[in-house]
Structure formats: structure tokens, C-alpha cells
Amino acid sequence: GLHGIISLSSSNTLSIPRATESTTTSSQISENEVVSVPQTERKNKDKWAAEQQPSTTLHVLVSTQSLLSLDKLTTKLNDINARVSEKYSDSYANIQSLSDIPIVLLTCNRPEMLKTTLLSLLAVRGVRKRNILISQDGAMRDIKSIAEDQGLTVIQNTEGIRLRGGQIDGAERIALHYKFSLTSMFDRFPNAKAIIIIEDDLLFSPDFYEYFQSTSPILNEDNSVFAISAWNDNGFKHRVKDPYTLRRTGFFPGLGWLLTRKLYKDELEVQWPRTHWDHWLRSPEIHKNREIVYPEIPRSFHNGIKGTFMNLDTHNKYFRDIDYNTNLSISWHSHRNQFRTVQQQEYEDRIQELLRSCTHLQSAYELHNYKDEILCLWIDVDPDPPYGPPAFQPMAEFFGIWHEHKRGAHNGLHEFYYHSNYIIIVNIFRSEEQLEEAVTYAHLLPRKSYLLNPRFFDKSKLPPIDESNVMQASGPDISCDTTCRLAGKTCNEESLQQLNDCTVLKQNFACSSCEQSVGPDQPAYVTFNNHCLMNSDRRITSCKASHPDTIRLCACSDES
User: Fold this and answer.
1) 390: how many CB neighbours lie within 10 A of its CB?
2) Contacts of 541 (CB under 8 A, 6+ apart)
3) Which residues are known to be catalytic?
4) What is the DSSP annotation of 285-307?
5) What is the pTM of this model?
6) For every residue of 433-454, which 3-state class applies, written as one string?
7) 510-529: buried (b, 16+ CB within 10 Å) or exposed (e) per residue?
8) How many CB atoms are closer than 10 A to CB 446?
9) DSSP string of 81-112?
10) What is the pLDDT of residues 73-94, one digit of tens each?
């Protein structure tokens, strides 16, 4: 959100605060502090900053992924992609990408966040200051000063600024500022066929700009595409792998996106809503069954923890572990035609080929039995139930993806990596109102396959952990990364949730009781009262976390 209340720092330098291994609670976070994600490629990030902006050192603390290895699973997926792509190899031979795309950065009253975002943006390959417009909601002097110090143009929206308790609330203010920004942007860049929209709480991949340039032709060549986003709602570490794979979804993700002049001027501008603009873009009346193209590995990272609709818990649950690209060697120059893989017909052909090639599971227990395979799981659940928790939620928590089924889904289908396998979840649900127009893959369900119940997916279905890989930290305030490293192993974050059980904790600690709690250092043993803590939100458990009052129970692995 744009309207976080962040206190000012006296520093005039652009820097991103360093993270530590220690667990940080919400009560410990100062208003101008940025919560960072784990650093694994500091050398690459420092090199990136040094090459792109020699006068400034960039410290972006994020996890990153390695380049693809040609393992068995990758080979299978590549073979399927190649068979499908061969049929379309000449489809877009002479199409030109957009080369000079203006960028509008929306901001309000978070000067420290703006500094961080600008530092990251200006280090992106291909970004030019003359193409950047800072659109400020309000007239906070420090915001304008930061932008002007960087030689950037600033415009200010000072109409009707009233937040919470006034005539205009946060959601309404944001929607109005979005319209002001988009209209101003297209007016100031009259020759721009499209613009990139970002906010002041994002970090960017080195190929962020090249990604949009390379994928932009799809907006002209395929009228079933609505927009292009840099974000994958399910782009969590261990769930993504291929830096060049593109996806389609009916659920608008935002967080760095490309909008065409034609769409905005012909359709959106005249009816832009007064509140919740992103929900409005997700409505069928507006997107008209057109989809958003997005990368498997995100090209942006949500770095803010305070805003109108953001807090620390939400950030840790859904944004902290996003594995956005930080690899400098990833370049779209050799993949300029990659956009055609999400052209509607080629994309559907690929999915049908996947569904014909996969192994169709009959129960959750069968996950133990496969390695390096493409696995299909068929379900029939309402993705948007009118009451009660979503039926999809247990399955989502099991696999570590969003509990909202629509996020990242294409016609009810999700695909991602899980341990050594590639998982495809296929939801064939149709409501009574959708029986005619809803698109599903029900016609591809094999006759002898079963529809699985998401409720049967829980941690008991996970592969067992070798007892020799279950280790206690040697004392409080020691992370599992450190514990496993001292044993010559690496922490296995995916297996930590299997230790999140009272019986397992009592086998390893003298627990007087077990309690549900929330914290990235859990499951763990509390030293001052002999209680054991189980994490009620297993997705936030981290190998890197530690706490001065707890001793961690760790899942290690012999694999490097």
C-alpha cells in the first residue's frame, strides 16, 4: 500500500538496512526499518550495484536461485516445451519489442522506503532517469527532495487528501491517486504505447526492465492478454526454478506491471473506480476473461511492512519468502521470442501435453513414491466459497502456496516445483452460474483417476525425515542454518514443518507442555519455562531465524 506512516531518518544516503539472523518481532521494529529476506548471493548483489551504479553500494538481502541444471525433471519439462514450441516456431518471426518504456513510481509519505526503491530501480539494466516519473500523493517535502536529489521529475497530487476519519479513506485515496498518476503519465509521454507502474515498497531484479521489453509484444499479438506483471503470487523459494518460464493467470497480481495506452484510454480511464482499484481490475466485468502474463520467478520483491493494507505478519506470510531473480547472468536478449510461449493457443497446447504426460495421483500418500516426475492432482472445490474457510486451504498450506485458489491460477490450474517433483493441481470446479462459460480441463481427466479431497493433505503425508538429520541447536539464539552448517549439512526448510509436532518436540526436549504460537524460529523449546512452541503458521518458519529465549529443533540435509 502507498500510505504507510514511516518516520524520517536523518540519513541522506541511499541504502538498504542489513538483516541479521535474529528473529525480529513486530514490537522490535522501528517505523523506518525495512525487513529484509535472507542474503545468499551478497557478492553478486554488490557486484551488480558496483557495475550499474559505481558511486553507490547496493545491499539487497534476498534469496536467489541457481541456474537450471539439466536433471531428469528439467529434461522432461524441456522436451514437452520443445515439442509444443516447434509447431509455432515461425509465428512471431518479425515482431518488434517495445524499447523505451516509461516508468511511473507511486509514492506518498515513506521517504526511507522511496530511497530504497530508487536505489534498486536505478541499478536495473536499461532504466534511464529521463523515463521515470515520481507521482507523489500529497506534498511531504522529504519525498520531493529525495526524488529531485536523484535528478528525477516529481508531480504531486494534492486534491482532497484526507485519510482515515476524514472524507476519504486509505483505499479511496489510493484509487484516486492511481488514476491521477496513470493519466498524468500518458499525458507526459504522448508517444508511449505502454507504461510500467511501480510503488515505493518494491525491489527489482537486474533484468526487470528487459523482462517487460521482451514480453511486451504479446499485448499486441494476443487479445486474450490483459496486462503483464513482474510478480508471481506463488513465486516462493523451492516452488520456482526456471528464470525464463512465463505463465498466465486470470487473477491480477500487480506489484510492478505493464499497462498499454490503448487499454487505459479506451476502457479503464473513463470508469476508473473510487476505491479498491486492484479488486476492480480483477472483476470479470473489467478483465473480460483476459489474462495477465507473469514470470515463474518474480522480477520484483515486496519490501514494505507498513502500509494501508500491510503489516509484518502479512509480509512474513506471503511476501518474505518470494524468490525473485537476483542472478546477473539472466538476460532476455537470447530469449526475445519467449513471449510466444504464453500465446493463448500455444499455452493451451502445452498444458494439454503436460496433462497427458503426467502421473495422476490417487491419494496424497503417493507423493512419497515419486522422484523427478510430473505429478497431476485433480480436485473439485469452490475457489471462492461464500462462507467458511476455503476448501483449498489445507492443500495450499501443505504445498506452501497461497490459500486463495485464484491467485496464480489459469483456468483452475496451478503448477510448481515440490521437492524433486513438478506438481500440477487441476481444479475442475464449475458453479451453477458458470456451467456454460467456465473453462476447465475436466475433459482431460483420465477415467480411472480420482478427485482428491484437499482436507486429506497434511504434514503426515510428507516423506519421513532421517533421524540423523534432526538436530537441536546447541543453545538459544542459534539458527538452524548455523546448527546444520556446524554438522557439515544444510538446513532443509521444507522439512521443518514435519518437526512442528508436539510428539516430535517431546522426543527431543523436556517439554512441560506444548503450545501453539507464531514465529519464524518455531518449532522450538523455551528455555525459561520449559514449554515447547509449535508454529501455527508453518509457512513462516525459517532456517535463518533464531530467538534469545528459544532453542531450535532443526531439519538438516546431506545435500549441498
Assistant:
1) 18
2) 493, 496, 497, 500, 520, 522, 523, 535
3) 278
4) HHHTT-EEEEESS-SEEE----B
5) 0.76
6) HHCCCCCCCHHHCCCCCCECCH
7) ebeebeebbbbbbbbbbbee
8) 12
9) HHHHHHTTTTTTTTPPPP----EEEEESS-HH
10) 999 999 999 999 988 877 656 6
